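In this section we walk through a basic example: taking a raw amino acid sequence and producing a predicted 3D structure, encoded as discrete structure tokens. The instruction is simple. Fold the sequence below.
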Amino acid sequence: YGFVIQLLWGELIGALCVFFNLQFKVFSYIYLILSCIIFLIVIVIIVRDKKKVFFIQTWRFGFTPTKLLVFFVIAFQIGWLVSHGTQTISDGTIEQMTVAIQTDTIHQIDHYTGEYYNAQYNIQYFGFYPELLSIWANLMRMSPNIFCNMLLPMIIIPYTYMVYNLWINKVFKYDRKLKEWAMLFCACLNLYGCYSNYTSSFFMILYLF
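The resulting token sequence is shown next.
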């Protein structure tokens, strides 16, 4: 849920920045400071009340052939996307990231035409995912294109399969073998369906949220 919460407060901060015509730099500082504060609060809660609030369970991996095959398929997906120059993230997202970093604006310039908006439109108050990616690309001093097409798949795809694993654990709660085969089925299905940037499988491993 942490990733979804980040998107939520990024949306709220972004909407305020658009309303007050604040710079992308301000958006970045507010987001990073708020992230650090929330992270520290969570750490304090875990340290003080871990026995009452959190149930920490040790997970034994167990190298079964099915699990190894799942990890191989997932690693192959990541390697294929990174090494073959596939357009992992849409051009519109990369263009929006580039505009935010280079002009220090947030939803003030049309990233397709390069012109400033004459007035504020409702659509400007939604969709700050590119700006959130811009923060991390800017911190790492990486080009938005390189960040999205090389580094991001290494982060998003494992996260996606973690979410799949949570869903599968809910469905096959008491059968370990069925969990493993269900994960393998999901991985192979996505591998089969990712022949294009616009298939359902492609969006299900990179835009699951």
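Looking at the output, two observations stand out. The CA atoms of residues 15 and 122 lie 10 Å apart. The helical segments are 2-19, 24-49, 65-83, 91-103, 129-139, 144-171, 176-193, 200-206. In the next section we compare this with other chains.
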